[in-house]
Each structure stands twice: as C-alpha cells, then as structure tokens.
C-alpha cells in the first residue's frame, strides 16, 4: 500500500502496456458485481443500494483476522476468475506483454503465475504518510494492512526487477 504501484502502472499504460488493476476489479465486484450477494450474506448490512459499502465492510474485518479470511475466501476466487478472463482476452488480442497490478501478489502466491515480477518500493515513512493521506485510512487500519503483507525487504529480495530505490526522479526512465 502507498508504494507508488499506481503511478508506475499509469506510466506503463502511457507506453501502451495493458494493465489489470486488481483493486479496480474488487471495486467493480463490490459495485453491483458478483461479490455483492455473497459478501452481504457473510456480513449482513454491508450492502447499500446494491453495492458493498467499503467503510462498513472495513469496520467488520479490520482487526478481525477470521472475518478477513472469510472475506478473502469469497473475493479472491472472483478476482482470480476475472484475471483469467482478462488474460485470455489479452492473449486473443495478441498482446505480448501485460501487467498485473496485484497488491497481495506474494501473499496469495500469484507470483508463481508471472513470467517476471517487479516491485515498486518507497521508504517506510513516505509510505506511511501517503497511506494516512487517503480517505478513511487510520493508523489502526494501516497497521492491520501492513501486518498482513510480506515485508518490503522480502518482496525486494524475491523480485526480478527493482524500481524505486533511487526515487521518482529516475523512476519514469526506469520504467
């Protein structure tokens, strides 16, 4: 979270590289998509006007590891299905290079499905400041999110291509 993945993905899109944003897929699934009914069934009261209220859902899962596991068990297969559909469509269109923007890539084991892995990294304090500037973010929520993630140093150890160590001044040129 708040490392700069979205910025790098925007640069890649400008270069014509198709990017699948997993967070955007989740937003679509929650906004009238196929996740609404099962998530509402598991967490009654989180659906409002046919869409999942992310703030209401967050209240139910932040700080409750079992609730979070139940939510992920519902949502991750739906995201994976959309990823498979998208990849098939890109292959059919003849795309030789695509990018998957997956915040929990290592945590879900999805790196095994990739030909190469790039990690976008930022200093911890910069990450914290960026994250806390987001609407609805709190120290508690950020702490819970970071607890679930593979540590940045470990991600960088596993990567195929490193980005972000020397800052944004050279960042776009590296992409």
From TrEMBL:
CDD domains in UniProt: DPCK (cd02022)
Q: Which GO terms describe its molecular function?
A: ATP binding; dephospho-CoA kinase activity
- Alphabetized InterPro entries for the sequence: Depp_CoAkinase, P-loop_NTPase
Query: Does this UniProt record's set of keywords contain Protein biosynthesis?
Result: no
Could you name the domain of life of the organism this protein comes from?
A: Eukaryota
List keywords of the entry alphabetically. Answer: ATP-binding, Nucleotide-binding
Biological-process GO terms, alphabetical? coenzyme A biosynthetic process
Q: Does the keyword Nucleotide-binding apply?
A: yes
Q: Which NCBIfam families does this entry report, sorted A to Z?
A: dephospho-CoA kinase (TIGR00152)
Q: What is this protein called?
A: Dephospho-CoA kinase
């Amino acid at each position: 979270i708040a490392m700069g993945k979205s910025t790098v993905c925007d640069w890649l899109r400008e270069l014509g590289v198709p990017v699948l944003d997993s967070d955007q897929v989740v937003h679509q699934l929650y906004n009238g998509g196929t996740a609404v009914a099962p998530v509402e069934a598991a967490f009654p009261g989180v659906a409002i006007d046919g869409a999942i209220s992310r703030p209401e859902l967050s209240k139910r899962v932040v700080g409750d590891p079992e609730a979070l596991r139940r939510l992920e068990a519902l949502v991750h297969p739906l995201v994976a299905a959309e990823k498979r559909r998208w990849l098939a469509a890109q292959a059919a269109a003849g795309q030789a290079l695509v990018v998957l923007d997956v915040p929990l890539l290592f945590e879900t084991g999805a790196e095994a499905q990739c030909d190469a892995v790039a990690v976008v990294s930022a200093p911890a304090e910069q990450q914290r400041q960026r994250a806390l500037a987001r609407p609805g973010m709190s120290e508690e929520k950020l702490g819970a999110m970071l607890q679930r993630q593979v540590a940045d140093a470990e991600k960088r150890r596993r990567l195929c291509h490193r980005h972000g160590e020397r800052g944004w001044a050279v960042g776009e040129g590296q992409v």
